[in-house]
Specification:
The protein has 9 helices and 18 strands. The protein is of the alpha/beta class. The chain starts with a helix and ends with a strand. Strands 4-3-6-1-2-5 form a 6-stranded antiparallel sheet, covered by helices on one side.
Length: 344
Amino acid sequence: MEEVLMREEAPVRADEERHKKLEVCLKSITALADDVNAFEFTSADGRPLPEFTAGSHIDVHLPDGAIRQYSLCNPPGERNRYVIAVLRDPQGRGGSIAMHDELRAGQKLRISQPRNHFALSTSARRHVFVAGGIGITPVMAMIAEVQRRGEAFHVYYCARSAQRAAFLDELKPLIDSGDVSVHFDNGDPRNGLDLVSILRQYMPGTHLYYCGPGRLMDAIEAATVHWPPATRHCERFSAGAAMDTRPDSASKSDRDEDVPFDVELHRSHKTFTVRPGESIVDVLRCNGVEVDTSCCEGYCGTCMTRYLAGEPLHRDTVLDEEDREAFLMICCARAKSPTLVLDI
């Protein structure tokens, strides 16, 4: 019995650790390109920051209570700092404007532990990266990691112009060596990168990673339908037109037929009913249970929660098959079973 309890408690302790917030100091803000700034965070207590892997991102808790996700762009081996790059987007939800206009060096903030839904493959023989605009941010950390491993790679970096392209100085040696190709379209989609030609031929052992605006992401997915699904990895800025075609994902007709289900909170022994048109997050908040959310569309990972029993109906575009055996995104998931038991 004791051994069983220890196995059950281990994931709980891991989840509690994962959800702990970090107190950090905004050490510096550096202009990288037009409307793109780098923000460097250091530990507020001087201790080493938690380790992270290439492709990881953090939640930044802004002073107004908003939570936004930004990819780490510094080399993964660094424990003394986290660096993110943020594009000031007037058409966004306000987080990037707050980052640019309200934050100042020396300010204390809270961030999440790093988490990774955009990890590098450990079995690939060659890596191909396609980054659009600020989508170069996670790729910078990935470049550092594949160089450390000594693995073959090529980066296609698309931007409107050199003035709007971050990290060009850092990438210059790789541009000169032919490992990075930079393409400027001057704001005209007709001058975009020829993705069909670049991605036409799949070579065994190659993995593709792509991050950028929705239109670029959709074009890449259309150009790589013949690639094995397990070799394609992406991170989106928004839900966009992404469609999850995995067998346990909901279609639009499924959504129209949503039925009520119960969520049982394992730790507090509370049970609530989630009705059609409501999310689990909506119901929890209405009953005084605080949960962190950001996108509320299933692509950022902020609300990832462990479930202990029941059968979820996943509607996110983040979790892989292995993650879905233990976690769900409570901003968008529902249930196939009458009850879901959450580790809350």
